[in-house]
Specification:
This protein is of the alpha/beta class. The protein has helices at about 35-55, 90-105, 120-125, 145-160, 180-185, 190-200, 215-225, 245-250, 250-255, 270-275, 280-290, 305-315, 320-335, 340-345, 350-355, and strands spanning about 60, 65, 75, 80, 110, 135-140, 165-170, 200-210, 230-235, 260-265, 295-300.
Length: about 350
Protein backbone atom coordinates (compact mmCIF):
# COMPACT_ATOMS: atom_id res chain seq x y z
CA UNK A 1 0.00 0.00 0.00
CA UNK A 2 1.22 3.48 -0.77
CA UNK A 3 0.22 6.57 1.14
CA UNK A 4 1.20 10.05 2.33
CA UNK A 5 0.10 13.51 2.64
CA UNK A 6 1.68 18.59 6.28
CA UNK A 7 -4.75 47.68 17.24
CA UNK A 8 -3.83 47.55 13.60
CA UNK A 9 -3.28 50.44 11.26
CA UNK A 10 -6.32 50.24 8.99
CA UNK A 11 -4.70 52.42 6.33
CA UNK A 12 -2.28 49.61 5.49
CA UNK A 13 -5.03 47.15 4.55
CA UNK A 14 -6.22 46.46 1.02
CA UNK A 15 -9.91 47.31 0.73
CA UNK A 16 -10.31 46.59 -2.95
CA UNK A 17 -13.26 44.29 -3.67
CA UNK A 18 -13.71 43.62 0.03
CA UNK A 19 -16.95 43.30 1.93
CA UNK A 20 -17.28 42.45 5.62
CA UNK A 21 -18.21 38.86 6.29
CA UNK A 22 -21.58 38.36 7.90
CA UNK A 23 -21.35 38.28 11.68
CA UNK A 24 -23.79 35.40 11.74
CA UNK A 25 -21.23 33.19 10.02
CA UNK A 26 -18.80 33.44 12.91
CA UNK A 27 -20.73 31.34 15.39
CA UNK A 28 -18.34 29.82 17.86
CA UNK A 29 -20.69 27.72 19.95
CA UNK A 30 -19.25 24.21 20.43
CA UNK A 31 -22.49 22.35 19.66
CA UNK A 32 -24.20 21.92 16.33
CA UNK A 33 -27.66 20.45 15.98
CA UNK A 34 -28.03 17.37 13.80
CA UNK A 35 -30.46 19.30 11.58
CA UNK A 36 -27.99 22.15 11.15
CA UNK A 37 -25.14 19.79 10.27
CA UNK A 38 -27.25 17.83 7.81
CA UNK A 39 -28.23 21.11 6.18
CA UNK A 40 -24.58 22.13 5.95
CA UNK A 41 -23.64 18.72 4.57
CA UNK A 42 -26.32 18.94 1.91
CA UNK A 43 -25.15 22.41 0.95
CA UNK A 44 -21.56 21.18 0.77
CA UNK A 45 -22.55 18.29 -1.47
CA UNK A 46 -24.46 20.62 -3.78
CA UNK A 47 -21.52 23.02 -3.94
CA UNK A 48 -19.10 20.15 -4.58
CA UNK A 49 -21.28 18.77 -7.37
CA UNK A 50 -21.40 22.20 -8.96
CA UNK A 51 -17.63 22.49 -8.77
CA UNK A 52 -17.20 19.00 -10.20
CA UNK A 53 -19.53 19.77 -13.08
CA UNK A 54 -17.57 22.89 -13.97
CA UNK A 55 -14.29 21.04 -13.46
CA UNK A 56 -15.40 18.29 -15.84
CA UNK A 57 -15.63 20.95 -18.52
CA UNK A 58 -12.10 22.09 -17.72
CA UNK A 59 -9.62 19.30 -17.20
CA UNK A 60 -5.99 19.04 -18.19
CA UNK A 61 -4.70 15.61 -19.05
CA UNK A 62 -7.60 14.08 -17.15
CA UNK A 63 -7.10 16.23 -14.04
CA UNK A 64 -10.10 18.38 -13.07
CA UNK A 65 -9.54 22.08 -12.39
CA UNK A 66 -11.63 24.12 -9.96
CA UNK A 67 -11.96 27.85 -9.28
CA UNK A 68 -9.80 29.25 -6.48
CA UNK A 69 -12.57 31.17 -4.79
CA UNK A 70 -13.19 34.59 -6.34
CA UNK A 71 -9.61 35.04 -7.60
CA UNK A 72 -10.38 34.10 -11.20
CA UNK A 73 -7.67 31.43 -11.06
CA UNK A 74 -8.26 27.73 -11.77
CA UNK A 75 -6.22 25.15 -9.90
CA UNK A 76 -5.80 21.40 -10.17
CA UNK A 77 -8.02 19.40 -7.83
CA UNK A 78 -4.92 17.75 -6.38
CA UNK A 79 -1.84 19.69 -5.35
CA UNK A 80 1.72 18.69 -4.44
CA UNK A 81 2.57 19.18 -0.77
CA UNK A 82 5.96 20.77 -0.21
CA UNK A 83 7.01 19.28 3.11
CA UNK A 84 7.31 15.70 1.89
CA UNK A 85 9.35 16.67 -1.16
CA UNK A 86 12.48 17.12 0.95
CA UNK A 87 11.85 13.94 2.93
CA UNK A 88 12.98 12.24 -0.27
CA UNK A 89 16.70 11.65 0.25
CA UNK A 90 17.66 12.35 -3.36
CA UNK A 91 17.20 16.00 -4.43
CA UNK A 92 17.14 14.96 -8.09
CA UNK A 93 14.19 12.67 -7.38
CA UNK A 94 12.33 15.54 -5.70
CA UNK A 95 12.82 17.60 -8.85
CA UNK A 96 11.61 14.69 -10.96
CA UNK A 97 8.45 14.37 -8.82
CA UNK A 98 7.63 18.08 -9.18
CA UNK A 99 8.26 18.21 -12.91
CA UNK A 100 6.36 14.98 -13.56
CA UNK A 101 3.40 16.35 -11.61
CA UNK A 102 3.44 19.56 -13.64
CA UNK A 103 3.82 17.64 -16.91
CA UNK A 104 0.88 15.40 -15.96
CA UNK A 105 -1.41 18.38 -15.40
CA UNK A 106 -1.06 19.27 -11.72
CA UNK A 107 -0.45 23.00 -11.38
CA UNK A 108 -0.82 23.68 -7.63
CA UNK A 109 2.42 23.62 -5.65
CA UNK A 110 2.50 23.97 -1.86
CA UNK A 111 5.54 24.99 0.18
CA UNK A 112 6.67 26.90 3.26
CA UNK A 113 9.62 29.00 4.35
CA UNK A 114 10.34 26.66 7.27
CA UNK A 115 9.91 23.24 5.60
CA UNK A 116 13.01 21.13 6.16
CA UNK A 117 15.13 24.19 6.97
CA UNK A 118 14.41 25.65 3.56
CA UNK A 119 15.38 22.57 1.58
CA UNK A 120 11.82 22.08 0.29
CA UNK A 121 11.83 25.54 -1.30
CA UNK A 122 15.37 25.12 -2.63
CA UNK A 123 14.45 21.89 -4.44
CA UNK A 124 11.23 23.37 -5.77
CA UNK A 125 13.13 26.39 -7.05
CA UNK A 126 15.46 24.13 -9.02
CA UNK A 127 12.50 22.18 -10.39
CA UNK A 128 10.86 25.39 -11.62
CA UNK A 129 13.74 26.26 -13.93
CA UNK A 130 13.67 25.61 -17.67
CA UNK A 131 10.15 26.94 -18.22
CA UNK A 132 8.41 24.99 -15.45
CA UNK A 133 7.58 28.12 -13.44
CA UNK A 134 5.03 29.04 -16.12
CA UNK A 135 3.19 25.75 -15.54
CA UNK A 136 2.79 26.28 -11.79
CA UNK A 137 0.46 28.10 -9.46
CA UNK A 138 3.01 28.59 -6.70
CA UNK A 139 2.03 28.86 -3.06
CA UNK A 140 4.32 29.22 -0.08
CA UNK A 141 3.91 30.26 3.54
CA UNK A 142 5.65 32.42 6.10
CA UNK A 143 5.65 32.25 9.89
CA UNK A 144 6.45 35.90 10.65
CA UNK A 145 3.85 37.72 12.70
CA UNK A 146 5.84 40.98 12.66
CA UNK A 147 6.47 43.11 9.60
CA UNK A 148 10.22 42.63 9.96
CA UNK A 149 10.08 38.83 10.23
CA UNK A 150 7.49 38.47 7.48
CA UNK A 151 9.50 40.64 5.08
CA UNK A 152 12.71 38.71 5.69
CA UNK A 153 11.03 35.32 5.27
CA UNK A 154 9.20 36.32 2.10
CA UNK A 155 12.39 37.60 0.49
CA UNK A 156 14.21 34.42 1.43
CA UNK A 157 11.43 32.31 -0.05
CA UNK A 158 11.58 34.26 -3.30
CA UNK A 159 15.32 33.68 -3.48
CA UNK A 160 15.08 29.95 -2.77
CA UNK A 161 12.18 29.45 -5.17
CA UNK A 162 14.08 31.40 -7.85
CA UNK A 163 11.07 33.52 -8.71
CA UNK A 164 10.06 37.16 -8.47
CA UNK A 165 6.42 36.38 -7.70
CA UNK A 166 4.49 34.12 -5.31
CA UNK A 167 0.99 33.36 -6.62
CA UNK A 168 -0.42 32.75 -3.15
CA UNK A 169 1.37 33.70 0.08
CA UNK A 170 -0.10 32.41 3.31
CA UNK A 171 0.41 33.05 7.00
CA UNK A 172 1.48 29.65 8.30
CA UNK A 173 0.29 27.86 11.44
CA UNK A 174 -2.40 30.19 12.67
CA UNK A 175 -2.82 27.93 15.70
CA UNK A 176 -2.79 30.33 18.66
CA UNK A 177 -5.62 32.56 19.80
CA UNK A 178 -3.18 35.49 19.69
CA UNK A 179 -2.17 34.94 16.04
CA UNK A 180 -4.96 36.94 14.35
CA UNK A 181 -4.33 40.07 16.41
CA UNK A 182 -0.57 39.82 15.88
CA UNK A 183 -0.90 39.48 12.10
CA UNK A 184 -3.19 42.52 11.83
CA UNK A 185 -1.42 44.68 14.45
CA UNK A 186 0.41 47.86 13.61
CA UNK A 187 3.84 46.65 12.50
CA UNK A 188 2.39 43.18 12.00
CA UNK A 189 2.93 40.66 9.24
CA UNK A 190 -0.02 41.80 7.17
CA UNK A 191 1.65 45.16 6.55
CA UNK A 192 4.63 43.40 4.99
CA UNK A 193 2.50 41.14 2.82
CA UNK A 194 0.33 43.97 1.53
CA UNK A 195 3.43 45.98 0.66
CA UNK A 196 4.78 42.94 -1.18
CA UNK A 197 1.50 42.59 -3.06
CA UNK A 198 1.63 46.23 -4.07
CA UNK A 199 5.18 45.67 -5.31
CA UNK A 200 4.10 42.69 -7.42
CA UNK A 201 5.88 40.07 -5.31
CA UNK A 202 2.62 38.48 -4.15
CA UNK A 203 -0.64 38.00 -6.05
CA UNK A 204 -3.02 36.54 -3.46
CA UNK A 205 -3.08 36.27 0.34
CA UNK A 206 -4.27 33.46 2.61
CA UNK A 207 -3.62 31.68 5.88
CA UNK A 208 -3.28 28.14 7.13
CA UNK A 209 -3.80 26.30 10.39
CA UNK A 210 -4.52 22.83 11.70
CA UNK A 211 -5.38 23.27 15.36
CA UNK A 212 -8.88 24.64 15.88
CA UNK A 213 -11.85 25.84 13.83
CA UNK A 214 -12.37 28.57 16.44
CA UNK A 215 -8.98 30.10 15.60
CA UNK A 216 -9.78 30.01 11.88
CA UNK A 217 -13.06 31.77 12.55
CA UNK A 218 -11.29 34.36 14.69
CA UNK A 219 -8.75 35.01 11.93
CA UNK A 220 -11.57 35.53 9.42
CA UNK A 221 -13.49 37.75 11.82
CA UNK A 222 -10.40 39.81 12.63
CA UNK A 223 -9.78 40.31 8.92
CA UNK A 224 -13.40 41.36 8.43
CA UNK A 225 -13.11 43.96 11.20
CA UNK A 226 -10.31 45.53 9.18
CA UNK A 227 -12.22 45.42 5.89
CA UNK A 228 -9.99 42.68 4.54
CA UNK A 229 -10.98 39.37 2.99
CA UNK A 230 -8.54 36.53 2.46
CA UNK A 231 -8.29 34.97 -0.98
CA UNK A 232 -7.74 31.43 0.32
CA UNK A 233 -7.67 29.44 3.55
CA UNK A 234 -5.99 26.10 4.17
CA UNK A 235 -7.19 23.57 6.75
CA UNK A 236 -7.47 19.83 7.45
CA UNK A 237 -10.40 18.25 5.60
CA UNK A 238 -10.63 14.49 5.86
CA UNK A 239 -12.71 11.50 6.88
CA UNK A 240 -11.89 11.99 10.58
CA UNK A 241 -12.07 15.77 10.81
CA UNK A 242 -15.79 15.43 10.09
CA UNK A 243 -16.24 13.75 13.50
CA UNK A 244 -13.90 15.69 15.81
CA UNK A 245 -13.42 19.46 16.33
CA UNK A 246 -14.40 19.76 12.71
CA UNK A 247 -13.18 22.34 10.22
CA UNK A 248 -15.64 20.88 7.73
CA UNK A 249 -18.61 21.56 10.03
CA UNK A 250 -17.48 24.92 11.36
CA UNK A 251 -15.44 26.71 8.67
CA UNK A 252 -16.05 25.24 5.22
CA UNK A 253 -19.33 26.96 4.38
CA UNK A 254 -18.07 30.26 5.77
CA UNK A 255 -15.38 30.13 3.10
CA UNK A 256 -17.54 29.00 0.20
CA UNK A 257 -20.30 31.49 0.96
CA UNK A 258 -17.75 34.31 0.91
CA UNK A 259 -15.88 33.29 -2.23
CA UNK A 260 -12.72 32.29 -0.38
CA UNK A 261 -10.69 29.49 -1.95
CA UNK A 262 -10.66 26.27 0.10
CA UNK A 263 -7.33 24.47 0.35
CA UNK A 264 -7.82 21.03 1.87
CA UNK A 265 -4.80 19.49 3.57
CA UNK A 266 -3.94 16.36 5.53
CA UNK A 267 -6.37 14.11 3.61
CA UNK A 268 -4.65 11.17 5.34
CA UNK A 269 -3.57 13.07 8.45
CA UNK A 270 0.03 12.60 7.30
CA UNK A 271 -0.09 8.79 7.61
CA UNK A 272 -1.93 8.46 10.91
CA UNK A 273 -5.47 8.12 9.52
CA UNK A 274 -4.32 5.14 7.46
CA UNK A 275 -2.95 3.54 10.63
CA UNK A 276 -6.53 3.33 11.90
CA UNK A 277 -7.10 0.62 9.25
CA UNK A 278 -10.53 2.06 8.49
CA UNK A 279 -10.02 3.58 5.02
CA UNK A 280 -7.72 3.36 2.02
CA UNK A 281 -5.57 6.17 0.59
CA UNK A 282 -7.84 6.53 -2.43
CA UNK A 283 -10.92 6.74 -0.20
CA UNK A 284 -9.22 9.45 1.85
CA UNK A 285 -8.39 11.50 -1.22
CA UNK A 286 -11.82 11.03 -2.78
CA UNK A 287 -13.57 12.13 0.41
CA UNK A 288 -11.61 15.39 0.49
CA UNK A 289 -12.13 15.94 -3.24
CA UNK A 290 -15.86 15.46 -2.76
CA UNK A 291 -16.02 18.53 -0.53
CA UNK A 292 -16.17 22.01 -2.11
CA UNK A 293 -12.39 22.25 -2.04
CA UNK A 294 -10.48 24.18 -4.66
CA UNK A 295 -7.53 21.82 -4.24
CA UNK A 296 -6.60 18.85 -2.05
CA UNK A 297 -2.93 19.05 -1.09
CA UNK A 298 -1.17 15.73 -0.55
CA UNK A 299 2.44 15.00 0.26
CA UNK A 300 4.39 13.13 -2.43
CA UNK A 301 7.89 11.95 -1.49
CA UNK A 302 8.20 9.28 -4.20
CA UNK A 303 7.02 8.57 -7.71
CA UNK A 304 4.62 5.79 -6.54
CA UNK A 305 2.96 8.26 -4.16
CA UNK A 306 2.64 10.79 -6.98
CA UNK A 307 1.09 8.13 -9.21
CA UNK A 308 -1.35 7.30 -6.40
CA UNK A 309 -2.45 10.95 -6.28
CA UNK A 310 -2.83 11.06 -10.06
CA UNK A 311 -4.87 7.86 -10.02
CA UNK A 312 -7.12 9.26 -7.31
CA UNK A 313 -7.80 12.58 -9.03
CA UNK A 314 -8.36 11.03 -12.45
CA UNK A 315 -10.74 8.40 -11.09
CA UNK A 316 -12.69 10.77 -8.86
CA UNK A 317 -16.45 10.89 -9.35
CA UNK A 318 -18.75 12.96 -7.14
CA UNK A 319 -20.16 10.88 -4.29
CA UNK A 320 -23.78 11.02 -3.18
CA UNK A 321 -24.86 11.31 0.45
CA UNK A 322 -25.12 7.55 0.94
CA UNK A 323 -21.54 7.05 -0.22
CA UNK A 324 -20.32 9.86 2.02
CA UNK A 325 -22.22 8.48 5.01
CA UNK A 326 -20.76 5.02 4.43
CA UNK A 327 -17.23 6.42 4.58
CA UNK A 328 -18.00 8.45 7.69
CA UNK A 329 -19.53 5.41 9.37
CA UNK A 330 -16.28 3.52 8.86
CA UNK A 331 -14.26 6.22 10.61
CA UNK A 332 -16.63 7.48 13.31
CA UNK A 333 -15.44 5.29 16.17
CA UNK A 334 -11.73 5.74 15.46
CA UNK A 335 -12.15 9.50 15.13
CA UNK A 336 -13.90 10.11 18.46
CA UNK A 337 -10.97 11.39 20.55
CA UNK A 338 -8.79 12.77 17.78
CA UNK A 339 -6.14 10.11 18.32
CA UNK A 340 -5.46 9.95 14.57
CA UNK A 341 -5.53 13.74 14.16
CA UNK A 342 -2.42 14.55 16.15
CA UNK A 343 -2.12 17.97 14.53
CA UNK A 344 -5.21 18.94 16.57
CA UNK A 345 -4.45 17.12 19.81
CA UNK A 346 -0.67 17.43 20.21
CA UNK A 347 2.25 19.70 19.34
CA UNK A 348 3.77 17.09 17.02
CA UNK A 349 2.91 19.13 13.89
CA UNK A 350 3.53 22.57 15.38
CA UNK A 351 6.81 23.83 13.96
CA UNK A 352 6.33 27.29 15.43
CA UNK A 353 5.72 25.80 18.90
CA UNK A 354 9.17 24.23 18.82
CA UNK A 355 10.66 27.34 17.16
CA UNK A 356 8.81 30.41 18.49
CA UNK A 357 11.59 32.65 17.16
CA UNK A 358 10.19 32.09 13.66
CA UNK A 359 7.18 34.21 14.61
CA UNK A 360 9.34 37.30 15.17
Amino acid sequence: MTFNDHDPNPSCLDRSNQSPLSDTLFETEPGFSRRKFLGMTAASLLMAKSLSASAAAEARNGIPYRPLGRTGEKVSLVGLGGYHLARQSDPAESIRIIRTGLDEGINFLDNCWDYNNGESEIRMGKALRDGYRQKAFLMTKIDGRTKTAATAQLNESLRRLQTDRIDLLQFHEVIRDSDPDRVFATGGGMEAVLEAKKAGKVRFIGFTGHKSPDIHLKMLATASKHDFKFDAVQMPLNVMDAHFNSFEKRVLLVLTENGIGVLGMKPMGDHFILESKTVTPIECLHYSMNLPTSVVITGCDSMPILQQALQAVRSFQPMDSSQVNALLAKTSKAAEAGQFELYKTSHQFDGTYANPQWLG
